[in-house]
Amino acid sequence: MRISKNDYYLNIAREVAQRSTCLRRKYGAIIVNNDQIIATGYNGSPRGEINCCDIGICERQRLNINPGERYELCKSVHAEQNACLHAGRNAAIGGTMYLVGIDVETGEQIPGEPCLMCSRIIKQCGIDRVITIRKE
Fold first, then answer.
1. CA dihedral defined by 94, 98, 99, 102, rounded to 10 degrees?
2. Which of 13, 70, 71, 92 could be joined to 28 by an S-S link, Cβ 3.0–4.6 Å?
3. How many Cβ atoms are within 10 Å of 53's Cβ, its own excluded?
4. Percentage of residues of the chain with pLDDT beyond 90
5. What b/e sequence results for 55-65 when a residue is b if at least 16 CB atoms lie within 10 Å of its CB, and e otherwise?
6. What pTM value is reported for the model?
7. Residue 80 is a catalytic residue
8. Of 59, 69, 80, 113, which is the active-site residue?
9. Three-class SS state of 132
10. What is the pLDDT of residues 37-96, one digit of tens each?
């Protein structure tokens, strides 16, 4: 049986997440417009910076900060931000973002709702909706 388009794009976002350099969570995002993938992004250090996975230290983890809190201490660029930067507003207007999160410790998929900062960027980029996996 043929998989749905949503599952197809979520599967691709899951593969993109495998490029993440974060020690806590891997996220992959893709932007689709007119049934074409126009950009992908994963969470990781800015270009030219040392990745947390390469040095084995996550500052937020070292300080025992809960997931979803104190993002200002993290040097990574979020997957959603990377995808929006790569796409540009003109290509993304009216598009859909597919977002997948993976817990590094367990390897399980987790619901990947955009943080407040990413939600603003997604809106500014002109993306109409975000599709993510649902918690079962």
1. -170
2. 13
3. 16
4. 68
5. eeebebeeeeb
6. 0.89
7. yes
8. 80
9. strand
10. 999 999 999 999 999 899 998 888 889 888 778 888 888 999 999 999 999 999 999 999
